[in-house]
Each structure stands twice: as C-alpha cells, then as structure tokens.
C-alpha cells in the first residue's frame, strides 16, 4: 500500500493559539535570538511563523500539505516541530530530518511526541507507530530513542533541550556556548547605587547592564561580550574596568566587594558544573572554548587545566552514591527526608556543585523540564525527578500533577501523570523547599507553625497524600482558608421543645 496517499498527514496540523513548545524553548534558551533567521520545516498551518513575524523575526516556513509552493531555503535556525512523528515511512522520516538539517546554518530544533503521550491516543498498530481514529499516523518516541536516532542519522551529538525536543548545533562552539549558559546562575539583584554621580546617571542603563554582567560572571566583560553597551561606555571611560570602578564607587566599596566575591564564587560553581558535564560529550580543547568561557576560565581558575582537574573531582564524586547522599544531607537548601532531598527549581543554582552536576546529568537526559516546580534528588539510587506542582505558590498544600524521573544508571526517563489519580501526593512545609528570599516564604512558614501547634503534621506518612491529609484535617476539626487553618464550627443543634 502506498500509505502516503492514504494517510492524511496534513490533518495532524493544529491551529496554534500560542508559540509551539520547541519555538518557545529556543527563544527562552537564546538559541533563537532577535537577529537570527528561522525556517519552519513542516510548518503546518503556519501559526509559529505568523507569530514570530508579528514579533519582528525573519521567519518563513514550508509544508507539503498546507503551503506546498513556499520556497524551502536555509536559515540560522530550522525548526522540525512534530513532523517526523507523523511520517509512517522510516526512510522518508530520515530523509526529512536530513533535508531540514541541510538548511540549518546554526541549529536544527527537532521535536517529536514523547512515549508517555501514547497512553492518551487510541488506534491500531501500523509499522512502528499507530493509525489514530482520525486515520493519521503517530509514532511516539522515548527520549533515548529520539536522541539516538538523531545522532545516528546526522552523525552528530544532539542536546536534549526538553522532553521530546533536541537541538543539533552545526558548530561545536555554539553547542558549548549554549551548554555553558545553561549551567549559569541567575543572580540575585546586586546592591543598588547609594551615591549620586553625574557620570553614572548619564550612562545609567549601560552601567546597569555592565553591573548585571559582572553579577552573572564574576568578572568585567571583554567589550565584545556586551558589544552595544561597551561601545557607548568606551566613549566615556578609557576601559570597562574603569567603568566598573565607578560602579564600585557609587555602590559603596563594601557592598560591591561582597557582591563581587559572591558572584565570583557562584560563577566558579557554574563553570565547574559546565566543565564536569562537558566531559560527557568530550570536553573541548582549550583553544576551541567559546571566547567568553575561555575568559571565565582564565579569570576564575587561572588555567584550563586547573579548572578541568577540579571538574574531574566532581565527576568522580557523582559516581559515588555515598558522596551524593552526604551532599544531600549537608545541603542547607531544600527539604531532606529519609530517602531524598527536595529542592524548589529556583534554588537549584544555589546547591552544592556536586548536586548541580548530578542534576545536570539528569538534564542531559531530559532537557529542561519547563513545568518543574520541585527537583527530587534520591539519596539511595542515582535518580533525579522533576516534579510539577502547578499551584505551588497559591495552594497551601499543592497537589502533585506530573513527575519526570531520570534514571542515571539505566539512562532512561519515566513519566508519571497524577492528574487523574484519586489520591495524589500533597506537599507540606512549603518554606522548606524554597530559597530564603522566595516570595511568600514567611507566609508558608506561618502556616506550618499553625499546623504544628494544631498537631496536624504528626505521622507524616499518612498525610502525604490528599485523602490522608483531608482526613487528618477533618479528624482534628480544621479546614484551610488560604494559608491559614481555621476551626470548623458546627452550628448548634436546634433546641427541641416537647
Ligand atoms: C503535527 S503537524 C506540525 C506542524 C507544525 N510544525 C506545528 O508544530 O504546529 C505535522 C506537519 O508535518 C507535515 N509533514 C508531513 N510530512 C512531511 C514531510 N515529509 N516533510 C515536511 N513536513 C511534513 C504535515 O503536513 C503537517 O502539517
């Protein structure tokens, strides 16, 4: 049977209300920037292209079903979004991947439906996928299968961007730049300038951009690294170092020096995590390091050799479950239980470098799990889970929606959906998961104190799931009102007169 004529592939294209996941991710990751061009290979109804154009991007697309006459041309970024999974013929699938790759000047973004979505689709088997009720074909990929297939077909090493989404970079230096940026922390706001200074005020925006760079990287940038900002500042200062000296002056030398020490320490940890993880792809030679990373290495470690040897120590330690367990129990961030450490996603960059590398290894398998709220580090097995609690901030006791668990020994990924569970896990003591400056942390802590006083948190095993927790509240005569507990008042029984 010539199934291509029978299977209406074009019907798989949906009318998108938002940017698709791979495009949104590429933007968030800086892989698709405002000055890069995009080609959407198999663009369906063209929702991504139209949205990007409206945002000012140079974006075009082609689709054999919806816009067959559009020109296929090269671009910096090529998106092959949810196309390969609708092609029933494995040879054509591979050809499509190769054709899209041939057009990608910098990076190809490949997305396909993950295997856990197969549970939600019924159909009859066809080749290595299924024919759905609508008569279209779908192949669902495990994360490892998709990664290996891309690597074999394109003879490269792709990078997991997220579950079901991979980046294939043309130049290894671009891949390294992306990987280094992924391990970089997002700095807390630095101290504000205290003294007024005319020169600072005139260049406030550029000075703040310079301060932000220093807070992120723990060093003064090379002019090329902040090109526009640098060219304006260098019109007023002999060097960026001198501009930074003025920043120190207006901020107050004590605050500035404290912030700089903190930033350097954090940047060192970022770099170690990157270099440890880079070993899995084969660490680049010193001469092949992206320029910014080479400068980080020189400023923070003196030499590449010194940095790599520290990163190697970390790598050896993550193979040692005892060392991981120790790092979990030592952690001053997160909630420690008998078998795991739980940390809010916003606190990840504050963790011990060993745990960051451990998590980085898991992320090599899964990519970024955008919906993740809490990361669970197993103390017993080499497993990291990305847990999603969509209502974490608002709900006093958030309910677990989904979990994506990376098994670092088996190199596999397992997805569990709790959304239709009748008794899903719930969280208590929310303040324990988050960093000290997390919005609402005091409110979370006040609730915990109230609940402790009311004896609601004893025997935590039974209250760990929704039913047990609701039962506990009822038994003790309480209900929740936002982040407070209140007594359930039963109306007095009416008096009966005989
Ligand atoms: C699920 S849709 C995805 C569309 C779009 N990328 C998106 O994310 O909204 C799959 C699309 O792949 C297109 N397609 C099918 N075979 C193709 C091929 N060999 N090359 C390129 N696109 C193909 C179909 O016409 C369909 O529009």
UniProtKB/TrEMBL annotation:
Biological processes per GO annotation: methylation
Listed name of the protein: DNA phosphorothioation-associated putative methyltransferase
Gene Ontology molecular function: any one: methyltransferase activity
Keyword Methyltransferase on entry: yes
Keyword line: Methyltransferase, Transferase
Keyword Methyltransferase: yes
Domain of life: Bacteria
């Amino acid at each position: 049977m010539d199934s291509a004529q029978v299977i209406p592939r074009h019907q798989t294209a949906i009318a998108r209300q938002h940017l698709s996941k791979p495009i949104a991710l590429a933007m968030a990751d800086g892989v698709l920037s405002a000055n890069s061009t995009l080609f959407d290979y198999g663009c369906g109804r063209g929702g991504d292209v139209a949205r990007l154009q409206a945002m000012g991007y140079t974006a075009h697309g082609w689709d054999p079903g919806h816009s067959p006459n559009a020109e296929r041309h090269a671009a910096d970024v090529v998106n092959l979004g949810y196309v390969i999974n609708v092609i029933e013929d494995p040879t054509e699938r591979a050809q499509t991947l190769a054709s899209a790759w041939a057009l990608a000047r910098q990076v190809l973004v490949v997305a396909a439906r993950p295997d856990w979505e197969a549970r939600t689709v019924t159909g009859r088997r066809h080749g290595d996928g299924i024919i759905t009720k609508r008569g279209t074909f779908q192949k669902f990929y495990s994360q490892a299968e998709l990664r290996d297939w891309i690597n074999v077909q394109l003879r490269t090493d792709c990078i997991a961007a997220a579950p079901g989404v991979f980046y294939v970079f043309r130049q290894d230096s671009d891949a390294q730049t992306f990987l280094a940026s992924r391990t970089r922390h997002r700095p807390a706001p630095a101290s504000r300038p205290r003294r007024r200074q005319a020169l600072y005020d005139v260049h406030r925006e550029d000075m703040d951009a310079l301060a932000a760079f220093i807070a992120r990287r723990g060093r003064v940038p090379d002019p090329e690294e902040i090109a526009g900002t640098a060219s304006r500042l260098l019109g007023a200062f002999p060097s960026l170092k001198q501009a930074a000296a003025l920043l120190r002056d207006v901020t107050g030398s004590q605050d500035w020096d404290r912030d700089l020490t903190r930033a350097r320490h954090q940047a060192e940890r970022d770099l170690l995590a990157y270099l440890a993880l880079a070993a899995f792809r084969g660490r680049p030679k010193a001469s092949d390091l992206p320029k910014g990373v080479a400068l980080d290495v020189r400023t923070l470690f003196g030499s590449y050799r010194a940095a790599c040897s520290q990163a190697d120590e970390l790598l050896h330690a993550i193979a040692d479950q005892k060392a991981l367990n120790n790092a979990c129990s030592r952690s001053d961030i997160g909630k420690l239980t008998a078998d795991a450490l739980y940390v809010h996603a916003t606190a990840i960059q504050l963790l011990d470098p060993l745990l960051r590398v451990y998590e980085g290894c898991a992320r090599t398998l899964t990519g970024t799990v955008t919906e993740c709220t809490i990361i669970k580090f197993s103390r017993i097995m080499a497993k990291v889970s990305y847990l999603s609690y969509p209502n974490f901030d608002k709900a006093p006791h958030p309910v677990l929606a989904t979990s994506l668990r990376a098994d670092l020994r088996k190199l596999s990924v397992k997805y569990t959906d709790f959304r239709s569970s009748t008794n899903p896990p719930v969280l208590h003591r929310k303040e324990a998961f988050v960093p000290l400056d997390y919005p609402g942390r005091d409110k979370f802590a006040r609730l915990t104190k109230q609940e402790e006083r009311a004896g609601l948190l004893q025997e935590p095993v039974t209250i760990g799931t929704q039913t047990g927790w609701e039962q506990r509240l009822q038994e003790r005569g309480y209900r929740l009102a936002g982040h407070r507990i209140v007594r359930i008042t039963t109306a007095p029984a009416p008096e009966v007169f005989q």
